[in-house]
Amino acid sequence: MSSVRQHPVLTNDLARAMVDAALAAAGPKDQRFTIAVVDAGGHLNAFARMDGAPLITIQVATDKAYTAAGFGLATEAWHDLIAGDPPLALGAPSQIDRLVTFGGGLPIVVEGALIGGIGVCGGHWTDDVLIARAGLSVLTRN
Question: pTM to 2 decimals?
């Protein structure tokens, strides 16, 4: 039927593999991270909070994943997107629930289809991005 689209779906096995890869990358660092993976609808699929990760990292990591899945855009891209647009810069962060405008959230794309997002919180946002990328690396492994 031509009016029905078919695309890949995030499985729990894939989501857990992403969390495991992110945890492996985070292990040697001095910071404690939280990793969240959501499906295309923004629903939590897999999650881990390292011992000692601050409580607030739970919400931030989950919201980073949600933002990435919701817009198909890395959370760090939001900064440049809104920086030159004062109404958007003022309105988007305060009026779009769960929107995160700094790095650490990446969309999960398979075969050109957005299937979810991964979010990491615990270090500087640049560290969070590196850990999130490690989680996405499972997509390219054989």
Answer: 0.92
What pLDDT, in 10s, does the model give residues 99-133? 999 999 999 999 999 999 999 999 999 999 999 99
The fold for domain 12-140 equals: Beta-Lactamase (3.30.450)
Residues 6+ apart with CB under 8 A from 127: 29, 31
Alpha-carbon separation of residue 78 from 15, 46, 56, 137 (angstroms)? 24, 24, 21, 22
For 43-80, what is each residue's pLDDT tens digit? 999 999 999 999 999 999 999 999 999 999 999 999 88
Domain map (residue ranges) of the chain: 12-140
Rounded-to-integer distance, Cα 81 and Cα 110, Å? 24
**Looking at this protein, which amino acid is placed at residue 12?**
N
